[in-house]
Structure formats: structure tokens, C-alpha cells
């Protein structure tokens, strides 16, 4: 055993001391600032608490019952999964196509494209929010002025102000900012495929398209699966940031997602107990979704 | 045919990524007067309004925010590296009873939505007088990246040949000397990757800073930017907003230019944890 052998290198008293100094400070801070708030979050969800008073009233499952009575909750869940669906579809589609193009075509400019496509992944959600809010700005933004090139009258659509459009308008920024990373992930898979496989496919008369569907896709299925799960998780756990920055859940809750609603209920309406119950709901839904998808995708791998 | 379509799609998407960025730069050089004409596509008129940048830096206080962010990011990067490297070293080379469980605990919190603990975290920090304080923010940032750091660095320490540690120990380096003088330098490439990934994560962090920091003189760059965006309802200094946006992106851009390889490697390592 490596541990036994390494242990013998040092005197016993020094060794114990060393373990404590190296392990305990990190773990103590981690327990206080990460584990404790999470456990406490579950605990708080059984109380009625405004946050400002020290009085916490135990109310059992009432906060959870409230989840079922609250008309906004089903809408937030629906909005979250709307974003999940479109992000998964569009990001995976673009990321896979670009990954293939940048690896298989052997273009001179592929390093350039790779660097450019990845860059939006680097910038903060705040910057993306500010930038896209302006792109969508009805009078000054360049989306409307672009569309106006094709119409007689100037277009003045309030993309983020229209409750029918606002949620869909949140998809492009998320896709724009998300593609690069998953593209790099899938590229690493493609670069691991041996060139001789492609050669023998060519000899068998498989065209580019057939090589793509029969060879590339099955062999990078693992990367695609990881990407899919990662998009689902990060969307369910983090979509509220872009929502909060671009629409604050409005207009009229038409873009409210679970996380942004939690923030509003907790930090604007001071219903801390109810807010943490929403947090537990997010945890449960994201875990359930991941487990379910893992099952589904595993079955699909066998079919290949 | 297939090839040409792919190639065209690359150029189209390249334009979709680059144009908004180019446009941000041109916009930051426009005057408010030109803005209100509404021709979003126009290039800025001469003279270029570099004054937008000095306004963002001074009048909109981005100088302060920039310093705040820098202080928080640097201190948290150093602390987080120290805390995660020590733990990763033990887990990789000196596992003890329960270290597997502890590792599992660190990793599993990467799967749990941070927002679940947000409310209790706020009140806990507040009871320790660590809200509205850059020290508190830095401490929190240190911890939130520890699981990632431990995860990546355990791999690095595991891959090191055992003889090196033995040789150092026999030479009488002592256990701390062995760690700081021999093991850490050997893990340099892992440390660099983790440091850069953490620096990016901290610089871009929004949620915790929003919840924990209340007074404007303590804003970080991301909070400052979202605050300035909110102000746009009342004032219309778009040029200043976009100058501020560029100021906030410059450090990220520089990191990306110099460390592109480590960044893509670091992100991929983080994603494959699942």
C-alpha cells in the first residue's frame, strides 16, 4: 500500500501533526461555508421565517404544500425545462457540427475558430446579460435594426418586454455563451479516434456524411453524453442568473425560473422558509433528471 | 458539398461571436448624442469618445470595483490553492481511514445547486460580520473552488513517482519541507491550471457578491456592472456602460490569450468529473 510505505518515511509524531495541519483547516471551512448552509437550507424549509426576526416557527411540511398551491411554481418548472430542452438541442447540434468541422476538415483557420468560439465561455454572465440586453433593445439595439433592413417599416419589437417572446429570447444568449466549451470537449473525443478507422471507412466507400453518422458520432457518444448531462445540470442549477440579469423573471413572471423565483421570494419578499423549500425542490428535480437521463442514455449506448 | 456547408457554417458562427464583441468596442467609443440617433450599426463618429473610459473608471467608480475584484481574486486564488493542494496531497499520497469518504463529500457538493444554501449562508455570514466585507467574500470564494482544486490536484499528486518523495524524506527534508520544496513545484502545471480556472471563476462570480455585498464602495466588477446596467433606466450614458463592460473583460481576455491551453484543459478536467 502506498499509504503504508509513504508513512514510514516520516517519524510518527510528525506524521500525525502533518495530517491534521493539512486536512483539518480545509475541511473545517468547507463544512462551515458549504455543507452547513446546504443542510441548514433543508432544515429551514420546515419553518416560517422572515429572516429579519429571530423567531422561526416550525410549520412542518407547510412550505412544501405551498409549492403545490403556488400558481407560479409550475410555470417556473416549465420555463426551466424549456430552457433545458432548447439549450441541449442547439448547443449539442452546433458544438458537434463545429467540432467535426474543426477536426476533420483540416482547415488552416481551425485554431483561430477554436479560439474565437471558446471565448464567450470565458466572460461573465453579467457581461453576457448586459451585451444581449442591448442587442435586444427595441430602439437602439442592433437586432431590430438588422431586421429593419428587410422590412419597409422599422422593426421595434420589445424582445424582452413581450411575455410571449421573452423566454425564447433567453435561449440565444445561453447558446452563444455555451457552445465553445462543449465543442472543445467533443473535439477532444474526435481527436482520439484513430485515422485508420476513417481510412478503412473510405475504402469501404463511406462518404463524409456516412463517416459522420456511423463512425464519429458513435465514437464520441461518451463526450456527447457528458455534455448533455452537464448542460442539463448547469441549466437547472444556474439558469436563474441569466434570467435575473436580463428580465428579473418578468414580464409578468413569463421568464421566471425556479432559481430566480427563489431569489425573489427570499431576498425581496423575505419568506426565507419558503425560499429554501424552493431550493430543495431544485435539488430534487435536478438529481431526478440526471438519474433519469443517465438511465436513458445508458440504454441508448447499448443500441449503438 | 458537405465540406463547403460546414465551412460556411464556421464563418457564419464566427461572425455571430465576433460581431457583438467588435460592436461592444465601437459602442464604447460613441457619444451619447450619436447613440440617440439609433443607428446601432454605424461606426463611431470622430472624435472617438475615449472619455467614456475615464468616466467609467472615475465617475462610475470602476477603478474602485477593479481594485476590489483584484484584491478578492488574488487572495482567494492563493488561499484556495494552499487549502486544496494540502488536502489533495494527503488524499493522493497519504490516504487515511475515511479519506475516500471525505473526497466523495467534496466532489458531491459540485453536483448540488449552490442556490440551495444561499439563504442560510447569507445569515451565517451575517452573524459572523462577514457580509458586506471583502474579507468575507474572499473567504467564501476560497472555499467554493476547493472541491474543483482537490479534484484536479489529486490526479497530479497521484501521477508522481513515489521515489521522489522517498528520496526527499530520506535526505531529511522533513514532511513539510518535502511538500513545499519538492512536491508543490512538481505539481506546478496542475497548480497553474487550478489557479487560472479559479481566478476566472472569481472574477466572473456574480451571485454571492450580489447577496453578500451591499455597499457600493465594496462592489466587485460584476456587481458594479449590473448596477450600472440598472442605472441605464434613468441616465443614458451607454458609452460609459460599454466602456465599463470592456474594462471588466480585459483581465479575462488577457488570461485567455496567455493561458488558452490551460483553460481548455482545466474546463475539460472539471466537466469529466461526472
Automatic annotation (TrEMBL), chain A:
It is found in: Cell membrane. It holds the Pfam family BPD_transp_1. Residues 77-293 form the ABC transmembrane type-1 domain. Keywords: Cell membrane, Membrane, Transmembrane, Transmembrane helix, Transport. Signal peptide: none annotated. The chain crosses the membrane at residues 15-39, 84-103, 115-135, 175-193, 226-246, 272-293. SUPFAM superfamilies: MetI-like (SSF161098). It is a multi-pass membrane protein. Belongs to the binding-protein-dependent transport system permease family. This is Sugar ABC transporter permease.
TrEMBL record, chain B:
Belongs to the binding-protein-dependent transport system permease family. Pfam families: BPD_transp_1. This is Carbohydrate ABC transporter permease. Residues 66-259 form the ABC transmembrane type-1 domain. It is found in: Cell membrane. It comes from Cohnella silvisoli. SUPFAM superfamilies: MetI-like (SSF161098). The chain crosses the membrane at residues 65-91, 103-125, 137-157, 178-203, 238-259. It comes from the Bacteria.
